[in-house]
Amino acid sequence: MTHQPASPRAGVTGRQVPTVFTQTIANSPRNQRGGGQVSYLLLAPGQFGSANLAVTWVEAEPGSQQPVHAHPGREQVYVIVAGRGQMIVGDEEQEVQAGTMVFVPPGTGHAIRNPGLGTLVYVSATSPPFAMPDGQFAYQPAGNS
Protein backbone atom coordinates (compact mmCIF):
# COMPACT_ATOMS: atom_id res chain seq x y z
CA MET A 1 0.00 0.00 0.00
CA THR A 2 1.38 3.41 -0.94
CA HIS A 3 0.73 6.58 0.97
CA GLN A 4 -1.15 9.23 -0.99
CA PRO A 5 -0.37 12.86 -0.12
CA ALA A 6 -3.27 14.81 1.29
CA SER A 7 -5.05 16.86 -1.32
CA PRO A 8 -6.26 20.41 -0.74
CA ARG A 9 -9.77 20.59 0.64
CA ALA A 10 -12.60 21.83 -1.51
CA GLY A 11 -13.87 25.29 -0.66
CA VAL A 12 -17.46 26.50 -0.67
CA THR A 13 -17.22 27.27 -4.39
CA GLY A 14 -15.83 23.80 -5.14
CA ARG A 15 -12.38 25.23 -5.93
CA GLN A 16 -9.37 23.85 -4.11
CA VAL A 17 -8.46 25.83 -0.99
CA PRO A 18 -4.87 25.66 0.27
CA THR A 19 -4.43 24.17 3.71
CA VAL A 20 -0.98 25.59 4.44
CA PHE A 21 -0.45 29.35 4.58
CA THR A 22 2.94 30.95 5.18
CA GLN A 23 4.19 34.47 5.79
CA THR A 24 7.80 35.66 6.01
CA ILE A 25 9.18 38.62 7.90
CA ALA A 26 10.57 40.03 4.63
CA ASN A 27 7.04 40.16 3.18
CA SER A 28 5.32 41.42 6.33
CA PRO A 29 4.15 44.94 7.14
CA ARG A 30 6.44 46.53 9.73
CA ASN A 31 6.12 49.03 12.51
CA GLN A 32 9.24 50.92 13.63
CA ARG A 33 8.36 51.57 17.25
CA GLY A 34 10.03 54.34 19.15
CA GLY A 35 12.81 53.20 21.41
CA GLY A 36 14.40 50.62 19.12
CA GLN A 37 11.77 47.92 18.57
CA VAL A 38 10.64 46.76 15.12
CA SER A 39 7.40 44.76 14.86
CA TYR A 40 6.55 42.63 11.82
CA LEU A 41 2.89 41.73 11.36
CA LEU A 42 2.94 38.03 10.44
CA LEU A 43 -0.80 37.45 10.75
CA ALA A 44 -3.29 40.29 10.51
CA PRO A 45 -7.01 40.06 11.23
CA GLY A 46 -8.69 38.46 8.22
CA GLN A 47 -5.42 37.35 6.59
CA PHE A 48 -5.71 33.78 5.25
CA GLY A 49 -9.27 33.76 6.64
CA SER A 50 -8.04 34.16 10.22
CA ALA A 51 -10.74 35.55 12.48
CA ASN A 52 -9.42 35.02 16.00
CA LEU A 53 -5.71 35.72 16.05
CA ALA A 54 -3.01 38.32 15.28
CA VAL A 55 0.70 37.40 15.36
CA THR A 56 3.76 39.67 15.38
CA TRP A 57 7.52 39.04 15.30
CA VAL A 58 9.41 41.75 17.21
CA GLU A 59 13.13 42.58 17.29
CA ALA A 60 14.12 44.72 20.27
CA GLU A 61 17.49 46.45 20.29
CA PRO A 62 19.55 46.67 23.51
CA GLY A 63 18.13 49.26 25.90
CA SER A 64 14.71 49.36 24.23
CA GLN A 65 11.34 49.09 25.99
CA GLN A 66 7.86 49.16 24.58
CA PRO A 67 5.46 51.47 26.43
CA VAL A 68 3.25 49.82 29.05
CA HIS A 69 -0.05 49.13 27.31
CA ALA A 70 -3.13 46.91 27.62
CA HIS A 71 -5.54 45.15 25.29
CA PRO A 72 -9.04 45.25 26.83
CA GLY A 73 -10.94 42.05 26.05
CA ARG A 74 -7.87 40.43 24.46
CA GLU A 75 -5.43 37.88 25.82
CA GLN A 76 -1.87 37.80 24.59
CA VAL A 77 1.18 35.58 24.78
CA TYR A 78 4.81 36.47 24.24
CA VAL A 79 7.23 33.70 23.23
CA ILE A 80 10.88 34.65 23.58
CA VAL A 81 12.84 33.38 20.57
CA ALA A 82 16.31 34.85 21.24
CA GLY A 83 18.03 36.97 23.87
CA ARG A 84 16.96 38.00 27.34
CA GLY A 85 14.53 40.58 28.60
CA GLN A 86 12.42 41.89 31.47
CA MET A 87 8.69 41.28 31.14
CA ILE A 88 6.33 43.59 33.00
CA VAL A 89 2.78 42.28 33.55
CA GLY A 90 0.57 44.26 35.93
CA ASP A 91 2.63 44.98 39.05
CA GLU A 92 5.05 42.11 38.44
CA GLU A 93 8.37 42.04 36.62
CA GLN A 94 10.25 38.89 35.63
CA GLU A 95 13.36 38.03 33.63
CA VAL A 96 12.64 36.08 30.45
CA GLN A 97 14.89 34.29 27.97
CA ALA A 98 14.71 32.18 24.82
CA GLY A 99 12.14 29.42 25.26
CA THR A 100 9.99 31.35 27.76
CA MET A 101 6.27 31.93 27.17
CA VAL A 102 4.45 34.72 29.03
CA PHE A 103 0.65 34.87 29.22
CA VAL A 104 -0.93 38.33 29.57
CA PRO A 105 -4.57 38.29 30.79
CA PRO A 106 -7.09 40.53 29.00
CA GLY A 107 -6.85 44.21 29.93
CA THR A 108 -3.62 43.83 31.94
CA GLY A 109 -0.92 46.48 31.48
CA HIS A 110 2.28 44.97 30.12
CA ALA A 111 5.58 45.75 28.40
CA ILE A 112 8.89 44.13 27.59
CA ARG A 113 12.33 45.66 28.02
CA ASN A 114 15.70 44.59 26.65
CA PRO A 115 18.32 45.46 29.28
CA GLY A 116 20.94 43.23 27.61
CA LEU A 117 23.69 43.73 25.07
CA GLY A 118 22.17 41.61 22.28
CA THR A 119 18.93 41.76 20.32
CA LEU A 120 15.82 40.39 22.02
CA VAL A 121 13.48 38.59 19.60
CA TYR A 122 9.96 37.52 20.49
CA VAL A 123 6.70 36.47 18.90
CA SER A 124 3.41 37.76 20.28
CA ALA A 125 -0.03 36.36 19.58
CA THR A 126 -3.25 38.19 20.48
CA SER A 127 -6.79 36.81 20.56
CA PRO A 128 -9.12 38.17 19.49
CA PRO A 129 -6.88 40.18 17.16
CA PHE A 130 -6.12 43.80 17.99
CA ALA A 131 -7.42 46.61 15.81
CA MET A 132 -4.84 47.74 13.29
CA PRO A 133 -3.08 50.82 14.70
CA ASP A 134 -2.80 54.08 12.79
CA GLY A 135 -0.66 57.20 13.05
CA GLN A 136 2.89 56.66 14.29
CA PHE A 137 2.07 53.07 15.29
CA ALA A 138 0.65 52.06 11.88
CA TYR A 139 2.23 49.13 10.08
CA GLN A 140 3.97 50.09 6.84
CA PRO A 141 3.88 47.81 3.77
CA ALA A 142 6.84 45.44 3.38
CA GLY A 143 9.84 47.18 1.85
CA ASN A 144 8.99 50.61 3.35
CA SER A 145 10.66 51.98 6.46
Radius of gyration: 18 Å
Shape: globular
Structural class label: mainly beta
CATH superfamily, by name, is: Jelly Rolls
Query: What percentage of residues falls in helices of 4 or more residues?
Result: under 10%
What portion of residues belong to β-strands? 35-45%
CATH topology: Jelly Rolls
H/E topology pattern: EEEEEEEEEEE
SS field, number of helical segments: 0
CATH top level assignment: Mainly Beta
Low-confidence stretches: 1-8
Distance between the termini: 53 Å
Number of domains: 1
CATH architecture: Sandwich
Instruction: Round the mean pLDDT to the nearest integer and report it.
Output: 86
Main β-sheet: number of strands, strand sense, barrel status? 6 strands, antiparallel
Number of strands: 11
Strand order of the largest sheet: 3-4-5-11-6-9
Describe the structure.
By secondary structure, the protein is mainly β. It has one domain: Jelly Rolls. The protein contains no helices and 11 strands. It has strands at residues 9-10, 16-17, 30-33, 37-43, 54-60, 75-82, 84-89, 92-97, 101-104, 110-113, 120-127. A 6-stranded antiparallel beta sheet has the order 3-4-5-11-6-9, with no helix packed on it. A hairpin with a 2-residue loop joins strand 7 (84-89) and strand 8. The protein is globular. The N and C termini lie far apart (53 Å). The model is unreliable at 1-8 (pLDDT under 50).
How does the SSE layout of this entry go?
Blueprint (H helix, E strand, L loop, with lengths): L8 E2 L5 E2 L12 E4 L3 E7 L10 E7 L14 E8 L1 E6 L2 E6 L3 E4 L5 E4 L6 E8 L18
Antiparallel strand pairs: 1-2, 3-4, 4-5, 5-11, 6-9, 6-11, 7-8, 7-10
